[in-house]
Amino acid sequence: MTEIKEDQRGLKMKLLVVLLLVVAIFIAGCAAEDRGIKKVSPAEFKEIISKEEVFVIDVHIPEQEHIAGTDAVIPFDELEKYQDQLPSDKDTPLALYCRSGSMSAAAAQELADRGYTEVYDLQGGRNAYMKELGG
């Protein structure tokens, strides 16, 4: 009988650890939004980039055809090398895209880590934008 109680206690402890890990992962995921990264749909992206104050960056490599209104083309893995092309004001809204979304997600994280406070990442990249909006 004591073995069963000890096994139940061990199982409860394992469940508690798993629950705590799930909560920690959830909080970490929410922290990305708190740091200024927001994943947006193609329709939201189009509306955001229509604003004059938004700086639009294509981070895809190799270079691709750009969405109209793109301000800079900076490879996602060379942001530090081309930091002189980025706005010096870290509160400038940045709108990032690549072909499918993975490179822009990496770039968004790096820019947020560098202190940019408002970073928009196009979900699905240029492919989704063209499919949904056609240009």
Structural features, described:
- The chain is built from four helices and five strands; from the N terminus they run H-E-H-E-E-E-H-E-H.
- With 135 residues, the protein is of the alpha/beta class.
- It starts with a helix and ends with a helix.
- The protein has two domains: 1-34; 37-133, 3-Layer(aba) Sandwich (Oxidized Rhodanese, domain 1).
- The chain has helices at 2-34, 42-49, 102-113, 125-133, and strands spanning 37-40, 55-58, 72-73, 94-97, 119-122.
- A five-stranded parallel beta sheet has the order 1-5-4-2-3.
- 46% of the residues lie in helices and 13% in strands.
- The chain is elongated, with a radius of gyration of 20 Å.
- Element order, helices and strands? HEHEEEHEH
Structural class: alpha/beta
CATH-defined topology of the largest domain: Oxidized Rhodanese, domain 1
Q: Calculate the terminal CA-CA distance, rounded to whole Å.
A: 70 Å
Helix content: 40-55%
CATH class of the largest domain reads Alpha Beta
Average pLDDT taken over every residue: 87
Largest beta-sheet characterization: 5 strands, parallel
Number of domains: 2
Overall morphology: elongated
Radius of gyration: 20 Å
**Percent strand:** 5-15%
Task: Give the number of helices.
Answer: 4
Strand order of the largest sheet: 1-5-4-2-3
What's the total number of strands?
5
Reported CATH architecture of the largest domain: 3-Layer(aba) Sandwich
The CATH fourth-level homologous superfamily of the largest domain: Rhodanese-like domain
Low-confidence stretches: none
